[in-house]
Amino acid sequence: MLRKAKVLAGWSMADLAHIVATFGEVLHVAGIPATPERRARFAQAIVEVDPTQVEQLYWVGRVTLLSSREQIEIYDLVFNQVFRGIVDLNDVNNSSDTPNPENAKESGDQQPARDHTNENESRPNPAGSSSTPGEKSEDSQDTDPPALLAPASDDERLKDSNFADCTEDELKLIAALVAKLPLVPPRRPSRRNKRHRSGQKIDMRSTIRNSYSTAGDPVDLRYRKHKDRPRRVVLIADVSGSMEPYSRIYLHLMLGAVRALHAEAFVFATRLTRLTRFLGTGDPDISYRRVAQNTPDWFGGTRIGKTLLEFIRDHGQRGIARGAVIVIVSDGWETDDPEILKQAMQRLSRLSHHIIWVNPRKAATNYEPLVAGMAAALPYVDTFVSGHSIRALQEVMDAIRNARDRAPADFRQFAA
Question: Looking at the 3D structure of the chain, how many domains does it have?
Fold first, then answer.
């Protein structure tokens, strides 16, 4: 795409949009979740930074497109192939075969030489050019482009697998992947403040002390701004029979959230059980056994409304839910009167800062929240996601990290 230190200023906006979209698509195929939002941030960063060297563009993409250290190796391979003039993005768009990245180098060494004459006649755009339209690479006539990156490992393949369709062995691999998900808590303003040059409140004590050197004239004003601190996160998961394929995976997520974010963890079927003290310390296997021993209604019926009212009465009003981000994992199947769930959600929305509802059934095509329990709860939900796979769990993590102030009820929008 770029040769050595090619200046990016010559790109048009159409070229930039094409390059960013296609590069993000290649990353997505290789196993890195380059979402449209991240691609937009990448394009905006290119416009603002205006990199003039490949190395600068590398760091712009790495900062804006990656979410974990495990993705760096794949990103480096894709970047070197695409932005070092090895692969043409036009060929990427037209190609449907994506060989294994682990075998890409070997295949480039072992494949028999091709007939370049026939290849050039059948293809209007010779391979080996950079992604800039109409530009050829210097060695395009000497070498063939290596195979493109594509996921081959079980870890990459399982990232899009629905938990309900996985075998026991696959669920064990998924549990290990869940443990690696980055957990970042949302932030909230603190009552404490600190000295900061962009603060809006004048630090009188520091300003006066500093004015001693200027004969008491406060020439240099000092400012302070409020600190921020992590906002509490509360996870409440449905472990009834209809949620059996997903409950075990979310138990692993709860373990990570309790230990990394000091979150509160609860499960419910016909009654509410607090798991925080069982998951907070000790070996994970021991924690899971203690959870099983103290949750007798696991995979039983569902009483969402009454258990949420129990949570509010025994825990929420005492401080756990006040100003917190509440994550409810349930398919919305309610055996009691939906009005009870509606009442519980009304009270919970007044106590909490943000409510995230994770419903794996939402991943189905043409999903509509027609179940009585889900329909009663949805008007009080701020973010509605599926969380049915590893990649969808990343959306849950993003929703927790970016939990914002609640919008007025009339302006809330929920994905169907």
Answer: 3
Task: Say what the pTM is.
Answer: 0.56
Q: Does residue 189 fall inside a structural domain?
A: no
Residues 79, 220 within the same domain: no
| Structure confidence by residue, pLDDT tens digits, 15-68 | 677 777 788 888 888 888 888 778 888 888 888 887 777 888 888 888 888 877
| CATH number of residue 265's parent domain | 3.40.50.410
Instruction: Print the domain residue range for 376.
Output: 233-411
Q: Show the CA angle centred on residue 131, arms to residues 128 and 137, nearest 5°.
A: 35
Q: Answer yes or no: do 113 and 207 share one domain.
A: no
293 and 389 both lie in a single domain: yes
